[in-house]
Amino acid sequence: MNRKDFLQKTALLASGILLSNTSLHAIIRGKKINIGIIGCGDRGKGMMEIIDQMPEQFKILGICDILDFRLKEALPYATSATLKTKDYRHILDNRSIDAVLIATPLNMHFQIAKDALLSGKHVYLEKTMTYNISEAIQLIDLTKQYPGLILEVGHQYRYTPLYFKVKEMIANNYLGKVTQIDCRWDRNSNWRRPLPDPSLERQINWRMYKEYSGGLVAELLSHQMDFINWAFDTHPDEILGTGGIDYYKDGRETYDNVQVMLRYKKEGMIGNFGATCGNGHDGFLFKIKGTRGMVSLLVNEGYFYPEKSILQEYSTVDGVTGATKITINKDGGIPIQVENSKDGSWYALQDFYNCIVNKRTPVSNVYTGARTAYCVHLANNAIYNNGIEKWRPELV
Predict the structure, then answer these.
(1) Domain match, 178 and 311 both
(2) Which of 130, 155, 180 is the last residue of a domain?
């Protein structure tokens, strides 16, 4: 990096200017999208709360859930004119509904998304995109038949200002040559939802059963895996994994303690991704380590840790240029400054709206969603088989 480029980049970092493409988050005024919500559990209601903050973009015209009490919980986001149903096909048959948001158990994603596209609806599909890679391939093929319909996958880190900025920091060589990625998403809880009726165990706690769920990898670690795919435009070549039901001996099938290692051969990187239900100290942890520095991320907060030699370089240059003084915390980290950000899902939904109105492909689309779904699929195969899985590039 020459001196001129270095001075410019240092000034940007110090002053906290947002590096991301601001047009990504621009609000396009115009047609209001009538949307139906399929799945009114925790995630579905959370997305309805965000949609409620976007009255110029969306109107909730239908809600659907197979459980009566879930439908009742969603009523604050409905009106007397809102369609309320236990059968998602009633949502798809309603010609006034332009798009659907699918927030169901993972094993239902593909069939509902397929039916929605066949019925002419735009689709916002929560992560992970599909339960297995075969379904992901079928969904890719189906979207090719309906090029006028938008399918966006809910990997919202691709839209969050903090993560968008980190992607640009990587591209602009702030971190140097990245070799190690350390990710955790831990909790000290059994991950269970309360049951109004014991007979609803598998329907409510579906995340714990292999028939419905990809477990901790699909529900949590897929976010971080997807960000690495996006930030480096890559995918892993080999995946090693292990795990077990190591604490909660309560009849669950998906593991409560997992660890996978992803090898990115072309980039010369190793990614360590782990999650446990047995300790909550680290919580969410995401570190990207390079020869010039490291980025340490929380969901909405991040710090850049230059290597010692680079920190000396920053300090010297900053003094010469007279740029805003770089703030360094007690651990030696420089806060990554971004605009006052909303929840990442707000930006993702805004992009979904913009893509429908402007007829363009989402940043998180069927192809990127398939790539991450494949990562999850291979990671779970490695975990449950205690082995090594290899990427087949002809699949995605």
Answers:
(1) yes
(2) 155
> Per-residue pLDDT for 313 more than 90?
no
Sheet of 33-38, strand order: 83-85, 58-64, 33-38, 99-102, 122-125, 151-153
Q: What is the per-residue pLDDT for 303?
A: 94
Same domain, 244 and 378: yes
Name residues whose C-beta falls within 8 Å of residue 316's C-beta, 6 or more positions apart in sequence. Answer: none
Q: What is the pLDDT of residues 103-115, one digit of tens each?
A: 999 999 999 999 9
| Statement to judge: residues 190 and 239 lie in one domain | yes
DSSP line for 362-380: -SS-HHHHHHHHHHHHHHH
Containing domain of residue 145, as a range? 22-155
Assigned domain for 396 exists: no
| pLDDT exceeds 90 at position 329 | no
pLDDT given at position 11: 43
Q: Is the dihedral of CA 128, 134, 136, 139 positive or negative?
A: negative
Verify that 138 and 164 share a domain, yes or no.
no
Find where tokens 């990127």 sit: 368
Is residue 330 predicted with pLDDT exceeding 80? no
Q: How many CB atoms lie within 10 A of CB 243?
A: 24
Cα–Cα distances (Å) from 96 to 62, 158, 369, in that order, read 10, 30, 28
88 and 217 part of one domain: no
Q: How far apart are CA 351 and CA 354, in angstroms?
A: 5
What's the helix, strand, coil split of the chain in %, to 5?
A: 40, 20, 40
Distance, C-alpha 286 to centroid of its chain: 13
Mean pLDDT, to the nearest integer, of 319-330?
A: 49
DSSP character for 188?
B
Q: Does the structure show a pLDDT above 50 at 379?
A: yes
CA distances from 121 to 70, 91, 155, 165, 352 (A): 23, 10, 20, 32, 13
The size of the chain, in residues, is 396
Could you tell me if 65 and 40 are in contact, meaning their C-beta atoms sit under 8 angstroms apart?
Answer: yes
- Would you say 224 and 218 are in contact if contact means Cβ atoms under 8 Å apart? no
Tokens of 323: 């740029």
Do both 123 and 219 map to the same domain? Answer: no
| Mean predicted confidence (pLDDT) in 375-394 | 95
Residue 19 has pLDDT above 50, yes or no: no
Residue appearing with tokens 């940007």: 12
Distance CA 229, CA 374 (A): 11
Q: Identify the bridge partners of residue 347 per DSSP, sorted by sequence position.
A: none
